[in-house]
Amino acid sequence: MRHGKKFNHLGRKAAHRKAMLSNMATSLILHKRISTTLAKAKELKKYLEPLVTRAKEDTTHNRRMAFAYLKNKEAIIELFGEVISKVATRPGGYTRIIKTGFRLGDNAEMCIIELVDFNELMLKDAQPVKKTTRRSRRGSGKSAGAEETKVTAAPAVEAAAAKDAEEPKAPEASADSAEEETENK
Predict the structure, then answer these.
(1) What whole-number distance in Å separates Cα of residue 154 and Cα of residue 159?
(2) How does DSSP classify residue 13?
(3) Taking the alpha carbons of 111, 115, 120, 121 in that order, is the dihedral positive or negative?
(4) In which region does residue 184 sit, left (phi positive, over 0), alpha (psi from -120 to 50) or beta (all else)?
(5) What is the pLDDT of residues 67-113, one digit of tens each?
(6) 60-70 helix and 38-55 helix, angle to the nearest 10 degrees
(7) pLDDT, tens only, 117-166
(8) Distance, CA of 3 to CA of 50 (rounded, Å)
């Protein structure tokens, strides 16, 4: 019986599939982000994440096991060096798949697979924002706070008006000029 024995063969024989996943994993480790189809990315995630977990413990045995999968010395050095230094505290989920649309030729669903801690744009968004305290509308603080905001807002408005007066303004397009352009065409 073959119960529970299913995975995506990706339309390839076993040797071709293993070589392809090894090459893709090496590229992902070295470049931190690659673009591929969604099916290949999902299989690559299952292939790479156990290697990253194994690399957390830097032993000769783990290096040899990882080399058996990747077959690339530079990728092993990168995996056990820079990659592990960033994901050492993470309990799992070392890769992220971002869908990018469909390929023109065959309409295959494309995506970007990347190592999570190497995307600087996502890391900037993930930093916590300071929480502001909520103030009650009740009490005597409201009238005093309103006066303070009026006092501090006035110089800011004056400074903005002075800045606008100093800088030359670009001519704005009017509705008449837009109509003239369409008539000329």
Answers:
(1) 9
(2) -
(3) positive
(4) alpha
(5) 999 999 999 999 999 999 999 899 999 999 999 999 999 999 999 99
(6) 160
(7) 988 887 777 666 666 777 777 766 555 555 554 445 555 555 555 555 55
(8) 23
Rounded distance, CA 173 to CA 134, Å?
A: 44
Which tokens belong to 168? 């030359």
Task: Tell me which residue has tokens 């993930």.
Answer: 126
Sequence-separated (6 or more) residues with CB below 8 Å from residue 90? 116, 117
Encoded amino acid at 142, one letter:
K
Contact between 12 and 20 (Cβ < 8 Å): yes
175 vs 20, which has greater pLDDT? 20
Q: CA separation (Å) from 140 to 145, 147, 149?
A: 9, 12, 15
Buried b or exposed e, range 32-61, using 16+ CB within 10 angstroms: bebebbbebbbbbbebbeebbebbeeeeee
Q: What is the DSSP letter of 160?
A: H
- Which tokens go with 32? 């931190």
